[in-house]
Amino acid sequence: MTRINRRTLISASAVLVVAALTAATVPAQAAEVGVSNSEIKLGMTLPMTGTASPGYNKIPGAMKAYFDYLNANGGVNGRKITLKVEDDRYVPTEAVAKTNKLILQDKVMALISPLGTANNKAIAASVNPARRGVPVLFVNSGFSGFTDTKKYPTTYSILPSYVMEAKIMAEYIKDNFAGKTLGLLYQDDDFGTDALKGFTQAGITFAVKVPYASGSQGAAGVPAGWITKLSAAKPDVVILFGVSSATAAGLGTAAALKYAPQWILGSVGGDATTIKASGVPAGVLYNAIGASFAPATTDATDEYVKLFSDIYAKAVPGSAFDNNVLIGMNSAFVAAQALKAAGTNPTRKSLMAAIDAKGASFASAALIPLNYSKTSHVGYNGYWFGKYSPTGDLKPVDGKYVLYTTDSGSGAVVKSTWKRPAMPAKGLPN
Amino acid sequence: MKITSVKSRAIALLSTTALLATIVVASPAQAAAVGPTCDAKTPIQTCVGTTSDGAAYEIRVPSSFNGTVALWSHGLGVSWPVSAGLLPPFPNGIPVDPRANVTPFTVVGSTSSALASSILADGVAVMGSGFPVQGWNLDEAVKTNVELIGIFKKAFPTTKKVVAWGYSAGGGITQALAEQYPQLVDAVAIIDPVAPAPAMQKLLMDALWLFKTYFDPSMKLTGYSAGKAGDLEATADIGKMYTILASVGANISSGKWPATAGPSGKALEAAGVPSRSAMLLCALLVGMPVQSASYDNINGPEGALKLTFPLAVSPALAALENFGVALTSGLSMAREWDTKFGPNWYDNTKTNFAAQLSESDRDIYNAALSGNTVIDGLLGVLNPANPAAPRMVGEASAVAKAAGMYSTTGKITVPTIMMTGTNDPVPAASWIQQVSDKYEVQFAAEKAAAITAAKKSRVYVAPKNKLSVLWLKPPKNWTKFDAAGTPIAQSYVAGNGHALFTQKQFKFMIDSAIKAANTGYVASGGPVTTAARKAGLVKDKYSAYPYLKYYN
């Protein structure tokens, strides 16, 4: 039995006062999981091996390159950032096991950039980072549901949602392909459901819609079936709204069958690195239309591209600076600002509070702002469109970025007038 | 999707024995208690007898008896016999067995008697009965246990503490004993417990109806004949279930449906829907875990199926394996309840099966379910308007009788230790999660009441923690393949299967309960967590296993 009387309380208060005074005279002691006096540990899961890994497996190297650069420049309030990477092979159950390891065994402060809609859902359902109070920073998924702060209170999106992307794509089509017949290939899960929601919201109709079950793109004969169905409907413009391996299979098979509509690629699938790794020449991307929220990776005039590509070239010599690398480094840069804003002794709570309070003003390479607030865990909310070069590089049409922005609901799609602020000195958190 | 290199012998259906191994059975009721008759041997004295309701019991008391007795409640046993030669997994049939158990019947890597010896060596007596009736017997078994406690105390008047424990249905019995007679037990250890009756009824009948609808409309499920004829009809249903499981397992790659599939199943097959997706959906709709003893949904064979196997195939194989463990008992109970309540005791006319697929499951297992279009097609079959999938229409008086059956509430009344494997196909994790969550609310209320009382008395008396939950979690991955890439059936992997624990784990449970009985609260903190870990168990205050569908 515990008894606490008035005298005990007074004594306890006195102890607390002494403790507080003592604390003021000694170096700050870290009191949060994953945070020591010299280090902050972050963890991420993504496919590093297996058929889903090409392209994505460059992200950890990119993030580490930025964190190493940051650490060499003093880290965050004197603490170095360490990134623990676990390979989930894009398998939800494995993502759960590896996330448990990161949280319970490696004791990371926060998860960062975990990849995949199904994987993040599995992590939320089984590992339950929300109940543990573990921040899930900048999930690598555009599923609109992850911005539901009641359901995923510790999760922060960073990519524009697939609903936004579809709405914006629809607007681009109205502006550029009015009156043309449309076809759609989409992944038959939440990824595709979000896209369908966006296209429906925008009032777009398709002459043919071809769903594919996640994972089926590798099965013999399946991509040929897509092309048969698409070509039979004779659409002028075909949207491939799937993962890179499906996009590669679709474009590769279409090229072999000499089927050549105007392709529009979703941002997830239009990745030359992955397509090349799938054995399909990047040339199949030539003249396809794609979307991005970050500057073109070939844009040497962009200060972020210049800095990040220099850092990456030194850290990972010989590896191409592509969109996965740019987005990975950008997420690391945003995370660094969040950790700095979380205070001299950051905690999981103060980290999330910092993003809620200041996240919308964090600097980033993107050409569209972040939208974090106490009520919003939405990251970016816009895209520009461009065309792929023969080498698979996405460049803005006529060399000019035209940004469209919207929300995941019924809001209109409008052209953005936002101007990205100058990069902080040396690309380090202010 | 065509998957060509996964061989068909992928399932360990015969692990059904794991559940039925927890069985003991019935003897006719008697008018008066007999015994106890004790052999007066040392160092262990054994006493046997029969309670007034006809249950055989056994008591073992060490010479070093320290005043504590552990009352064991065994798991579910069939209430009607399955004849020999009718079910391949049970060539000798499934008899009704009235023997008493004093400790768990099944102990992984050891024996029941070795476990009993280890408890007796501590000066603790053990006892248990065979119960007066088998099957779902919580109400009857509690009465027997109450009488047995009285018999023991009378025979051994130095008794100071009574600790009750049990697994499976015995876990439910132990929970019921604590809820109804908290003054008779000082602490309880509840292992892989069954959930309250309505939740178990729904899980089992939903699963069976889904099997009937998708795979074999000739399954009877209700309206069994009386006596031996009904036994044979129910046995035939169990046989049909095995045929379905074997067929889907044998055609896991091709997706071919069982020959017994009705019009809905055949239409789905014609539309290219693989039977494995339907099997997996059945599991997800009823809340059956989709990791199992042999299938982790992580590992894949080397080669082209390395990724496809865990994503698209393994969850369905796990569902098959878990159904194989759980549904023999389910059909046994369906027959028992049909007799007890009358035909058509279950009504699912208002069940919204589509709503029972969680948003998370739809996406996490999307590849294995073959995509949203297929999922919607499978769910469309279950629409009440589909004439090829007639719902079970309840008969009012029978439904009322079923609803009136005694149920536990999950309220914690005495110090309680709970343990389950996270992938128990019963599935106990779902119920324990709910008990744990309810107790968190209960404890917060007790704390608030203590604070309110302290404001008046100026003395704060902290409430004592009465619940500890221990999870047996599986390893990081465990599916194995032979050189040809065929998955290897495994009979035991920690955290999977039903009521499968080592002697160390059972001993940790009973020791923890005895300690709680002596202190009046359940200890927590580092040393306890460390001790649990040494037994392979973990405490996880952030666990979030999904509730049974009945509660959603």
Roughly what percent helix of chain A?
25-40%
Mean pLDDT of chain B: 92
Determine the CATH superfamily of the largest domain in chain A. Answer: Response regulator
**Sheet/helix structural class of chain A:** alpha/beta
Order of helices and strands of chain A: HEHEHEHHEEHEHEHEHEHEHHHEEEE
Query: Which CATH C-level class of the largest domain in chain B is it?
Result: Alpha Beta
Largest sheet of chain A: 5 strands, parallel
User: What fold name goes in the CATH topology slot of the largest domain in chain A?
Assistant: Rossmann fold
Distance between the termini of chain A: 52 Å
**Second-tier CATH architecture of the largest domain in chain B:** 3-Layer(aba) Sandwich
Instruction: Please indicate the count of domains of chain B.
Output: 2
Q: Give the number of helices of chain B.
A: 15
Oligomeric state of the chains? Answer: heterodimer
Determine the CATH superfamily of the largest domain in chain B: Alpha/Beta hydrolase fold, catalytic domain
SS element count, helices of chain A: 13
Could you explain the architecture of this structure?
The complex is a heterodimer of chains A (430) and B (552). Chain A is an alpha/beta fold. Chain A has helices spanning 6-25, 59-72, 92-105, 117-127, 129-132, 162-176, 190-202, 222-233, 244-256, 272-277, 303-315, 323-341, 348-358, and strands at 39-46, 80-87, 110-112, 136-139, 155-157, 182-187, 208-212, 237-241, 262-265, 289-292, 382-388, 394-396, 403-405, 414-415. Chain A has a five-stranded parallel beta sheet, sandwiched between helices. In chain A, strands 10, 11, 12, 13 and 14 form a five-stranded antiparallel beta sheet that branches. A four-stranded parallel beta sheet of chain A has the order 7-6-8-9, with helices on both faces. In chain A, strand 11 and strand 12 form a beta hairpin. Chain A is globular and about 65 Å long. Chain B folds into two domains: 20-194 and 416-551, Alpha/Beta hydrolase fold, catalytic domain (Rossmann fold); 198-403, no CATH class. Chain B has helices at 16-20, 112-120, 138-155, 169-180, 197-214, 227-250, 263-270, 275-286, 308-341, 359-364, 372-381, 396-403, 428-457, 503-519, 526-534; strands at 34-38, 44-50, 56-62, 68-73, 125-129, 161-167, 187-191, 416-421, 467-472. Chain B has a nine-stranded mixed beta sheet, sandwiched between helices. In chain B, helix 5 packs antiparallel against helix 8 (275-286) and helix 8 crosses helix 9. The longest helix of chain B has 34 residues, at 308-341. The two termini of chain B are 33 Å apart. Mean pLDDT of chain B is 92; it is low at 1-29. Classes of the chains: A alpha/beta (430), B alpha/beta (552). The interface between A and B is large, with 44 and 40 residues.
